[in-house]
Structures are given as structure tokens and as C-alpha cells.
Amino acid sequence: MDWCRYRFRSVWQLAAPPDAVFAVLERAEEYPRWWPQVREVTAVDDSTGTARFRSFLPYELVVTAVARRRDPEAGILEIGMSGDLDGWARWTLTEHDGGTRAEFEQEVEVRSRLMRLLAVPGRPVFRFNHALMMRGGRRGLAAHLRSG
């Protein structure tokens, strides 16, 4: 097992139609407005940006994200990532019970020196930190969709 590799999956049920959710999720530069753990997103060009994240633990991760797939018809947004995390992340949106089922999948290898040094003892804490970040994102997105 490679202790520096992670695979995450989260499913959010949202009370808004998939096209409305897609419209919010495709505007990554606005994530800091509704996702507390996403501290900053800066566009580099039309398909690339940098992002800073910080959840419960006292460290930040910085990644460069490159758009790999944007398919409104299929409800898919996918990025490649490099920097403190190397890998990919994908949203898949489907209609469900009059709202949206938003599935987030991510597969990454940690490149951050500190996280690599603490890979074995820190793994449960890093997974918990990610879970808190995703909970904050779900709550923030749901509130954003209600207010918009």
C-alpha cells in the first residue's frame, strides 16, 4: 500500500436542479464564497487555476488545477491537479428526487513534504480532515443554492 495515495468519494443530495448545481460548480473562482475550506482560487487562464485549501488541521495545501472535462450534458466536471496534491478530481451530477445527486471523486498522491513524512501515523487524521472539508463544502453549497 502506498500511504501517500488517497481515493475519496462523497455524495451530496442537493435541493436544486443539476443545471443550477453545475453552474455553481463550474465557477471554481467563486468557491471561496461558499466553501469555507477553499481559501483562494486564482485563474491563470481559461482552463487553469491555482487553489489554496485549509480544513481543520493547521496547514494549507496549494494545487494547480487544469480542466480536463467540462460536459454539461453528462453533468461532469473533471480537473487534473499538481502541486501539494497530484492527481484528479471529478464531479458527476444527476437528477435525483427533484434535486441533484452530486458525486465527488478524487484520487491523489500527496506531494506535501510534511504530509509525506507523517503519511503512516497521520493517515486517519488526514482522512478526517478531508471529511470535515467535504462537510463544509456540502453545507456551504446547499446554503448558496438556497440563497441564489
Model regions low in confidence, pLDDT < 50 over at least 5 residues: none
Counting DSSP E segments of at least 2 residues, the number of strands comes to 7
The SSE order reads EHHEEEEEEHH
Radius of gyration, CA atoms, in whole angstroms: 15 Å
Give the biggest sheet. 7 strands, antiparallel
Cα distance spanning the termini: 44 Å
Output the number of helix runs.
4
Mean pLDDT: 96
Strands across the major sheet, in which order?
1-7-6-5-4-3-2
Q: Could you say which overall geometry the principal axes of the C-alpha atoms support?
A: globular
Strand content: 35-45%
User: By helix and strand content, what is the structural category?
Assistant: alpha+beta
Helical fraction: 25-40%
Provide a short characterization of the protein structure:
The chain has 148 residues and is an alpha+beta fold. The chain is 31% helix and 44% strand.
